[in-house]
Amino acid sequence: MKLLGPEDLCMGVDIESGSPEGGNARYSLVVVKCGGALIYKAESSSLARLIRVAWDYRPRRLGVDNVYELGGDERRLSRVLSLLPPDLEVFQVTLVDGMFLDVREVARRAGIIEDFSKMNPLKTAHVAAMLACMGYGTSVRSVEEKTVIQVSKLRSHSSGGWSQQRYQRRVRAVIHSVATSIKEALDRMGLDYDYYYRESRGGLESAVFTVYAPRDVVRSIVEEVRGPDYVVRIKPVYRSRLLVTSGGGGLQSRPLIVGVDPGVTTGVALIDLDGRVLHVASIKSADRGSLVELISRYGKPIIVAVDVSEVPESVKKLAAQLGASVYTPPHDLTSIEKRDLIERFASGVELGDSHERDALAAAYKAYLSLREKLDSVEEKLRDMGAEIDIEYVKRWVLEGLSIADALERALEKAIEGIEVKRSIARREERRDQHVDVTEYIVEIERLKAQRNSLEARVRELEESLRDYERRLRDAQSSIKLEIARDAEISKLKSRVEALEREVERLKAERERLEEELGRATKAIAHVSSGELVLARRIPMLTTRNVRRGEEEPRVDAVIVDNANMFENEALAELARMGVRVVLLENLDSPLANALRERLIPVLDVRRYKVEEVHGIVLVESKVLRDAEVERERLKALRRPPDIERIIEEYRRERRRLTGRVK
């Protein structure tokens, strides 16, 4: 606890009359310097004035003998505390070391007063302010400001084949990349946070960061994003958590062993030092604040245990905030070991899921590691036979004290308790001898004020009831209009569903076009490098089909699917257009022979690689070289015979034969 200087301001408050629930409570207010100077005082002040004075003077601490005088219940009290300056510490000065004491007793211990004389509200407020300056009491206000960052898919996807699976893997990879970038940014700024995520094939389904910083700080580092496939949301979380205990030495001081199974769903198990199960739960998206609040309801944690040998970062932070040490097993606990621990120590406990099982198993594994030391404490106390709180001794031993030192501390606490009981008995005896009716008069006045407040509240509720009845009649008259709107809403829902289906169809079409674009890009590269050449594919060789391509780029090759029928005029058109080769499947067809007659090469289309990209036909460039060879062969077959050479050969042969006869 930070010490205050003599110039620091503290404020004291005490209720005079009325009820905080009714809003008619009146307070005495005092603002002092910690050096003792009185700065401000007021009586019969409203709650609104109390809050305004706190903002005007901005004291470091506010002292009160009962924090619920500011609000009748915890919900209203939390609201009032949230209206006070954020740096103002609220102290309940009567809660000292976990024990509730009379404000006059605390003042006597602090040396502010010497007797137990009656104090009016103004004097009580003054005493509370001085006690707050001196640090007496317990801080009862802890305002947590957190910011949650959620990274998730923009929408859910159903199964849709290989293409859909590839798309989902891509989205998971994007979420993983975004979450990693956010984590690195938070680490660079040194912000405290918890990080939970749900893994899936190829990446993450979702990720959640609970950052212990205001939203404006987080938004200066991380931006909200709504991408085509994912979304990053930033949400602030404000919560006031009261740390007032219900009494001294109660459940809140009981030492605990806490088992934790961290994750998107966190398992928590609480057991005492005798191995009894106090609480088991699994909590979705649990932050450290809610876990600390849950655990603090049952006692003071001594050990935080996990079921793995390597401590998760979130558990280290939780243990540090709880002021507890961390226990890890020598190796990761197997399912069989966990089941054996549960059956051995908690066979009758109902567990909701595997997270609760893992947390409880971790707690019992830690309990077994401490059992020998705890048994030694019980054996020592059993031999002494003294009335000592064994829970305190066990806790101090686990915190590092030797058994002897822990016993001495427990004996000192027991002796102090006896003296306190005697002092209280003496005060009660003096009160019995001197009855002061002033207290009863004040109580009667307070009850009268409370009655007036309740009567005003009844009148207010009756007026509200009449107002609700009027609004009900108005609502009934508007039902017909609502029914008329239902048809329009139904129509709009149908329209939305149709548009969603259209969006799905367009996305599928986009993926198909992207694939075709990729193929076209590769084809263009092959054409540029000379590996492929442009061609035309026509179903049948007719003049109409041939002339239809005159508006298209000139091609050197034509593929004809049906070679059984053709038009002679179409053959002439091919020759006129300068087609260098025609590709067919049947090289013995009439069309093939007619083309050869016109010296147009005909080749087997099945021998060559043919691709079609978005209506454009491409064929490997080798077909042009083979066409030239085929054209030369056809020309050779059409060349006329050399008559002179034949006659000359005939004459030589005749002379040779004639000479032989002679």
Describe this structure in words.
It is built from 19 helices and 24 strands. It has 662 residues and is of the alpha/beta class. The chain has 4 domains: 9-140, 2-Layer Sandwich (Nucleotidyltransferase, domain 5), CATH 3.30.420; 144-241, Alpha-Beta Plaits (2-Layer Sandwich); 253-388, 2-Layer Sandwich (Nucleotidyltransferase, domain 5); 530-638, Rossmann fold (3-Layer(aba) Sandwich), CATH 3.40.50. β14 and β15 form a beta hairpin. α3 (103-110) packs across α4, α10 (354-384) packs across α11 (390-398) and α11 runs antiparallel to α12. The model is unreliable at 240-251 and 430-439 (pLDDT under 50).
List the helices and strands and how they pair.
Elements: E1 9-17, E2 26-33, E3 38-45, H1 47-57, E4 61-64, H2 74-83, E5 89-92, E6 95-96, E7 99-100, H3 103-110, H4 121-134, E8 138-139, E9 142-153, H5 161-189, E10 193-200, E11 203-211, H6 215-219, E12 225-226, E13 230-241, E14 255-261, E15 265-271, E16 277-284, H7 288-296, E17 300-305, H8 313-322, E18 325-327, H9 335-345, H10 354-384, H11 390-398, H12 403-433, H13 438-477, H14 479-529, E19 532-541, H15 543-548, E20 557-566, H16 568-577, E21 581-584, H17 590-597, E22 602-604, E23 610-613, E24 616-620, H18 622-638, H19 643-661
Helix pairs in contact: 3-4, 9-10, 10-11, 11-12
Question: Helicity, in percent?
Answer: 40-55%
The gross shape turns out to be elongated
Counting helices, strands and paired strands, the structural category is alpha/beta
Overall radius of gyration: 46 Å
Portion in beta strands:
15-25%
The appropriate CATH architecture of the largest domain is 2-Layer Sandwich
Could you say how many structural domains there are in total? Answer: 4
CATH homologous superfamily assignment of the largest domain: Ribonuclease H-like superfamily/Ribonuclease H
CATH topology of the largest domain: Nucleotidyltransferase, domain 5
Number of DSSP E strands: 24
Query: What is the helix tally?
Result: 19
Main CATH class of the largest domain: Alpha Beta
Task: Report the uncertain regions.
Answer: 240-251, 430-439
User: Could you give the order of strands across the largest sheet?
Assistant: 3-2-1-4-5-8
Question: How far apart are the termini?
Answer: 147 Å
Q: Let me know the average pLDDT.
A: 80
Taking the sheet with the most strands, its summary is:
6 strands, mixed
